Amino acid sequence: MGSRRTVRSLAVAGALAVLAGLGYALWWRRNPTPCPYSQRRWVDLPRPILTRSSVRDVLDPRPGERILEIGPGTGYYTGTVARAIGPAGTLHAVDVQPEMVEHLQAQMRERGDRNVEPIVGDARALPYPDDSFDAAYLVLVLGEIPDRERALAELHRVLKPGGRLVVGELLPDPHFVRAGTLRRRAEGQGLQFDERVGTRVGYVGSISVPT
After folding, report:
1. Mean pLDDT across the chain, nearest whole number?
2. Where is the Methyltransferase type domain (predicted)?
3. Measured CA distances, 201 to 40, 144, 168, 170 (Å)
4. Across residues 68-73, what is the average pLDDT?
């Protein structure tokens, strides 16, 4: 009898845990926020489809360019892009969380990537003048921004005419932005959606600023 009660209790506890997890995921979906620094181990896990090389290939970073990364976190893609633009280029990495910025600064110093400038900032009000960058990218970040249209408008503003914007999305991210939604929002801000590389569950979107 006692063992049956134990099994029932464990089953109930498990069901409650699942419901709590689903409830939190739903809340997180409806209340976009970045992954907290305390959970940073999750942002360093391997990313199928959104590999470092796939993002780099679509972004096409070139030596000497000035590039903007939104939401670098711990720098999963930062080093790859920094090395592609070389010492003559500059990669500005903007994150809303001071702890992430401090982590990234330490990591870039350790790796010797001296052309990276991590700063604390909000994608909805970027601290740069118009036409500042040749290209920009954000991976698993757009859906975490409460006002995505404003963020896209800001990216349009700071990119040069002909500039490139890359957006990466991957399920099961609760903030996943579908390619069709991204296209509508980008075009609504005067950007041009060029192509999607990947599948329905994960893709890299290539966007450009009209000349």
Report:
1. 88
2. 68-167
3. 22, 17, 11, 6
4. 97
Whole domain around residue 19: which residue ranges? 2-31
Strand order across the 133-139 sheet? 116-120, 90-95, 66-70, 133-139, 159-170, 202-208, 192-198
For residue 123 the two structure tokens come to 């994608």
Task: Say yes or no: 12 and 53 in one domain.
Answer: no
Same domain flag for 120 and 204: yes
CA angle (114, 118, 124) in 5-degree steps: 150
- Residues 6 or more apart whose CB falls under 8 angstroms from that of 209 comprise 156, 159, 160, 161, 162, 163, 164, 165, 191, 192
Dist CA 164 CA 48 (whole Å)? 23
Same domain, 22 and 49: no
Same domain, yes or no: 10 and 87: no
Residues 12 and 96 in one domain: no
Is residue 92 within 8 A of residue 117, CB to CB? The reply is: yes
Instruction: Please write the tens of the pLDDT for every residue from 126-161.
Output: 999 999 999 999 999 999 999 999 999 999 999 999
The per-residue pLDDT for range 9-34, each reduced to its tens digit, is 444 444 443 333 334 344 444 557 78
